[in-house]
Amino acid sequence: MNPGRCLLACLISASLGAQAAPEALRATAERLKVEAFRTHGAYEDLAWLCDRIGHRLAGSPQLDQAIRWAHTRLMAVGLSNVHLEPVLVPHWVRGREAAQLLLPAAQRVNLLGLGGSVGTPAGGITADVLVVGSFDELDRLGAAAKGKIVLFDVPYAGYGQTAVYRHDGAARAGKHGAVAALVRSVGPVSLDTPHTGAMDYVPGVPKIPTAAVTIEAATQMRRMQLRGERIQMRLEMGAHTLPDATSANVVAEIRGTEKPEEIIILSGHLDSWDVGQGAQDDGAGCAMAMEAARLIQNLGLKPRRTIRVVLWTNEENGLRGGLAYRDAHRAEFGNIIAAVEADHGSERVKSFHLELTKISEEARISALVALKDTMGTVMAPFGVSFHLGHSGADVSPMVAEGVPGIGVEHAGTHYFDVHHTEADTFDKVSKDDLAFNAAALATFAYALAQSDLRFR
Ligand SMILES: [Zn+2]
After folding, report:
1. Which residues hold their Cβ within 5 A of ligand 1, which is an ion?
2. Peptide bond preceding 90: is omega within 30 degrees of 0, i.e. cis?
3. Domain with CATH 3.50.30.30 in the chain
4. Which of 70, 120, 165, 454 has the fewest Cβ atoms nearer than 10 Å?
């Protein structure tokens, strides 16, 4: 047995020796669930956030309003140390957008600019369209892209795999002299709903306007090209970037009774794209984290370790909230037991994904075994499983430096249908799923706070 393994085995046995009896925790889990379904607090909070504040892009007055609202709500629950941690965030503004197909037939095209894009020159851009199915195809065609609007018509093959076209499309097309880049929306289905998202330019390559079109429009233009028809479009985008704006992460705690310096973070991101209501992405994650803390507080439970709620700013187009938190909290890293992030919508929770960096694969597997041993019984009524995997974007700067991350994964059946679109609205949230998820998060955080489990 190598020394690393011995250390882990000792930690695991210590955690099993000190943790609360599984039967007591199972009873607490049941109480949390009953309370969550009695009050439906997460549902009420999310309804307010969506109905009364709406979408919340970094730099917008709506995000400021949401931050103030969350602060007030967490104060009202009676949590400790409720405060804002200021962060400077990018301030991108969409402006007016319009697109028309001019040839081979005049039609309006539904368009959504990508966050960070430049606008078109005054009067817009009119140019022929070149449809490609991959970066490789574009590179093979090379000079054919010059002066054109390049459309990446790439079918959805999973979020991470396909979103690269949205993120890098403008730089790849700009390199070949294109005047604009369009991307087929990154999602499995469409009801003429374009999906926005983040993009980046590359130094030394001209910055060209870039936007998403719907699956309907992308496949239509593909068919036109296959028929040998000339495709011409007109684009107008008023997108521009203002100086950085002030924003904040919202923080609140239930202080641990025995080991207050040891921290379990429960988090979601309060910002959203500037379309829809940011209900699934990620109002739901924030509402669940807030409700989990409220359930623990309202039942008068006294966690041994500190449970800290963090509502991040600027996940969508900068990650400045997560980066600033990493920089400000380095001294605590050794005592952050886990940084949990819920950023996968509101459907029923399915699994927790443990992410550990800077240790061997063998040590990761030992830590996963310890997680299952410590939490498996208490979480069994929620039907969740435990795996190694990705934790979350906002916690990723900390996780990269060795803080254990845990990502909350939900059923996600329809998450990417509405994600980053005008259709990400409150009506698609299930009241019971949200209560169930809040109780699961509360149980997980509380049981981890009662244990001595450490993942490294
Ligand atoms: Zn999100």
Report:
1. 281-282, 343
2. no
3. 95-238
4. 454
Architecture of domain 95-238: 3-Layer(bba) Sandwich (3.50)
Task: Note the pLDDT of residue 21.
Answer: 81
Is pLDDT above 50 for 295? yes
**Coil/strand/helix, residue 224:** helix
Quote the ligand 1 centre to 269 CA distance (angstroms): 7
Q: What's residue 324's pLDDT? A: 98
pLDDT band (50, 70, 90) for residue 22: confident
Average pLDDT estimate for 8-15: 43
Joined tokens for residue 423: 């259709």
pLDDT at 19: 52
Q: Show Cβ contacts of residue 327 under 8 Å, excluding neighbours closer than 6 positions.
A: none
User: What's the pLDDT band for 403 if we cut at 50, 70, 90?
Assistant: very high
- Residue span(s) of the chain under CATH 3.40.630.10 come to 3-91+243-450
Q: Describe the crossing of helices 3-18 and 361-379 by its angle, rounded to 10 degrees.
A: 10
The pLDDT of residue 20 is 67
Helices (H), 78-154: 135-141
pTM (two decimals): 0.94
Q: Where are the alpha helices (DSSP H) in 133-214?
A: 135-141, 159-175
Active site residues: 315
pLDDT, one tens digit per residue, over 276-285 is 999 999 999 9
- Cα 76 to ligand 1 centroid, rounded to whole Å: 26
- Whole-number Å distance between alpha carbons of 347 and 417: 13
User: What CATH architecture applies to the domain 3-91+243-450?
Assistant: 3-Layer(aba) Sandwich (3.40)
Q: Give the other-Cβ count within 10 Å of 282's Cβ.
A: 33
Do residues 240 and 95 make contact, with C-beta atoms less than 8 angstroms apart?
A: yes
pLDDT at position 456, please?
Answer: 86
pLDDT tens for 98-120 read 999 999 999 999 999 999 999 99
Q: How far is the CA of 123 from the centre of ligand 1 (A)?
A: 34
Give the residue among 13, 42, 39 at the shortest CA–CA distance from 430: 42
Terminal CA-to-CA distance of the chain, rounded, Å?
17
Distance of CA 340 from the midpoint of ligand 1 (Å): 14
| Helix, strand, coil in percent for the chain, rounding step 5 | 40, 25, 35
In sign, the C-alpha dihedral spanning 74, 255, 434, 455 is positive
| CA–centroid distance, residue 418 to ligand 1 (Å) | 12
